[in-house]
Specification:
Layout: E1 4-7, H1 9-16, H2 21-37, E2 40-41, H3 44-57, H4 62-72, H5 82-95, H6 99-110, E3 113-117, E4 126-127, E5 130-133
Parallel strand pairs: 1-2, 1-3, 3-5
Antiparallel strand pairs: 4-5
Helix pairs in contact: 1-2, 1-3, 3-4, 5-6
């Protein structure tokens, strides 16, 4: 696996939420670090989930939301495919994570990520060479980059 880090939607969402100041700051630090190093990875599913949540909240005009998402697209816009879905099914049976999370995990593995940044799954859990990291329990420099 390469030293890429797949970024879950919750990290992006906290980064744009002023109301969750500590998590917003930490998420912003992670995103800046991963953008600067070039090791941050996302996909279209993550970007669409973030878009959906921001639209539902209704506290930003659509133009502002789409501008935010366009900035997040710097981390990647890879789509999922049938192979991703097949891999997600196996992950779901093996690990019992939610279907949405298994789709993201499968995508991260396909994208050759080494880490998966999320607060929604078990910190330190390893799945096929991918290690889940809670962004609020680790700082960016703790990722051993090569």
């Amino acid at each position: 696996m390469k030293d890429r880090t797949f970024i879950d939607s919750n990290v992006f969402l906290y980064a744009v939420e002023a109301g969750s100041a500590p998590k917003s700051t930490v998420s912003g630090d992670w995103l800046r670090y991963l953008l600067h190093t070039g090791f941050g990875v996302a996909n279209l599913q993550v970007l669409n989930e973030v878009t959906n949540v921001l639209i539902k909240r209704g506290n930003k005009p659509p133009e502002a939301i789409f501008t935010i998402i366009d900035g997040f697209a710097l981390f990647g816009t890879t789509a999922i495919n049938l192979e991703t879905v097949a891999a997600a099914r196996l992950l779901h049976f093996e690990n019992k994570y939610s279907w949405r999370d298994c789709l993201l995990l499968a995508s991260a593995i396909e994208l050759q990520c080494r880490f998966f940044l999320s607060e929604d799954m078990r910190d330190g859990h390893q799945i096929r060479g991918l290690t889940i990291m809670n962004p609020f329990r680790h700082s960016p420099p703790q990722i051993p980059l090569h």
